[in-house]
Structures are given as structure tokens and as C-alpha cells.
Design brief:
single chain, 241 residues, alpha+beta, NADH Oxidase, 2 domains, 7-stranded antiparallel beta sheet, 8 helices, 18% strand, binds flavin mononucleotide
């Protein structure tokens, strides 16, 4: 006798398929939602900087003679070309093996540079970390940080008024691994070279800056969003006419 087909399995099988498809689609939407939540609000979290230029109209001697601390800035913004040049002066790579514009004990390069951008064309307001190898800035924290940074710098006006502030920090462990107790001395000497580079580069660009050493270390680090040790900050702005 011919055996009738058994349809008993069709109902549970259909339920299973429906459940499976529902799980895929709803799962997909949930994932899409999560991804949307994780997508940062700013348009680009990594910004390619323009290439630095290697010549200027002013001689080194004139630049050294003209260098002064400037504590008042016009309300003009900075642009990416100026920012790129300043960051290159601070820590730009100048040799194939990684040497930079500033010397470093043992060629260990513990210095880390952040830019707090308050009014920079092409940059979302916030703190950005400079990568000298790729010549890029990567966002660390978003927001207008002028008030908090100024408060962390004992209320010093230039920090609250500048369109950008360069934060010079370091990772002490990098130098300590080789030089132990002498590390902080070496790091601060490197920071001194970096700060002078920034001063001189400002001079050639018609910008003004001042080295600010009076601040609460932890408070500045918190505003910037770094675990590195902050050593010096330098507000930068266009010099008033
Ligand atoms: C390590 C260091 C820390 C400084 N800290 C501050 C500071 O907190 N606030 C400030 O207004 N100037 C500060 N200055 C800038 C000095 O006041 C300035 O260099 C000095 O008056 C000489 O003036 P000049 O830079 O125009 O030659 C600092 C300078 C250095 C080198």
C-alpha cells in the first residue's frame, strides 16, 4: 500500500523558519541601532593635516630676536595649515628612523602633543591628539573646553581666549625604562626644546603664544582626556594688529 506523506512536521518547521527570520531581521535592526549609538557626533574623528612647509621669509636669527610671549590674541580663528605647521614644529618627523624637530634622550620620544581646538577652521571643538607619523589629528574629547582649561590654569586669560591651546605631555615610563630616576629631568629638557620650537614657529607665522607652566596637572589632563603627564600648555592665537 502506498504510504501517505506525513505533514505533521510542516507546522513546527514553518514556525521555526518564521522565528529564525524574525530573529535575523530584529537582530539586524538592534545591531544597526547599537552602531548608530556608537557613531560619534563629529563628522570625522581623524583629520589629515596639510603637509608642513620647510621655508619662510624670516631668518632663524630674526626669529630668535623677535620671539616674545604673547598673551592677547585677535578673535580670528586658526586654520589647519597653521595648526599643521605648529604641530610639525613641536614633534614633526625629520629623519627616516623617526628623529623629530626636537631632540629626545636616547631617541625614545616620550612627548605626546594634544591640541585643544576652540576656534580652528576644519576642526570640531575639542581635544585632539597629534600623530606625527601619519601627520593626523585624532579626536579625544568633544566640546568647547576654554572655560575648564582656563580654570585649570589658575584662571589665566590667554588660555580662555585663544582659538587653540597646545598641550605638551609625556609618557614618563617610556624614558624611565632606560634612564630611571633621571627621566623627568630629561623629559622636561625635551619639553623645553618643544616649547621653543613652537614659540619660533609662531613668530614666522604671525601667531602669538606663551608658555604656561602654572596649572593643576590633573585638572588639565582631565579636561584634555589624557592619561599622559601634562608638562606645559601653550595657547596660540593670531597676533592683534
Ligand atoms: C617654564 C615656563 C613657565 C611659564 N609659565 C608661565 C605662566 O604660567 N604664565 C605666564 O603668563 N607666563 C609664563 N611663562 C612665560 C614667562 O613669563 C616669559 O617667558 C618671561 O616673562 C619672559 O618673556 P618672553 O618670553 O617674552 O621673553 C613661562 C615661561 C616658562 C619658560
Amino acid at each position: 500500500m502506498k504510504k501517505e506523506p506525513d505533514f505533521n512536521y510542516i507546522f513546527p518547521f514553518t514556525i521555526f523558519i518564521l522565528f529564525f527570520l524574525t530573529a535575523i531581521f530584529t537582530g539586524g535592526y538592534v545591531m544597526a541601532d547599537d552602531e548608530t549609538l556608537e557613531t560619534p557626533a563629529y563628522e570625522s574623528s581623524v583629520v589629515n593635516l596639510p603637509d608642513p612647509v620647510y621655508e619662510s621669509d624670516i631668518s632663524l636669527e630674526e626669529t630668535l630676536r623677535a620671539r616674545r610671549s604673547v598673551r592677547e590674541y585677535s578673535d580670528r580663528p586658526l586654520d589647519l595649515t597653521q595648526v599643521s605647521q605648529l604641530l610639525w614644529a613641536a614633534q614633526g618627523i625629520t629623519a627616516d628612523w623617526g628623529a623629530r624637530t626636537a631632540p629626545s634622550a636616547g631617541g625614545l620620544f616620550p612627548v605626546r602633543i594634544y591640541l585643544v581646538a576652540s576656534d580652528v577652521e576644519g576642526l570640531t571643538q575639542g581635544s585632539w591628539e597629534y600623530d606625527p607619523i601619519s601627520n593626523t589629528l585624532t579626536i579625544v574629547k568633544e566640546g568647547d573646553m576654554r572655560r575648564d582649561l582656563m580654570a585649570a590654569a589658575l584662571g589665566q586669560g590667554p588660555v580662555g581666549n585663544a582659538p587653540a591651546t597646545i598641550v605638551i605631555s609625556a609618557i614618563p615610563e617610556i624614558t624611565e625604562a632606560k634612564y630611571g630616576d633621571r627621566s623627568m629631568r630629561y623629559i622636561d629638557q625635551e619639553v623645553g626644546a618643544v616649547l621653543q620650537n613652537i614659540y619660533l614657529q609662531c613668530e614666522t607665522l604671525g601667531l602669538g603664544t606663551v608658555a604656561i607652566g602654572a596649572f593643576y596637572d590633573d585638572q588639565v589632563a582631565e579636561v584634555v582626556g589624557t592619561s599622559a603627564t601634562v608638562r606645559l600648555i601653550m595657547p596660540v592665537g593670531v597676533v592683534e594688529d
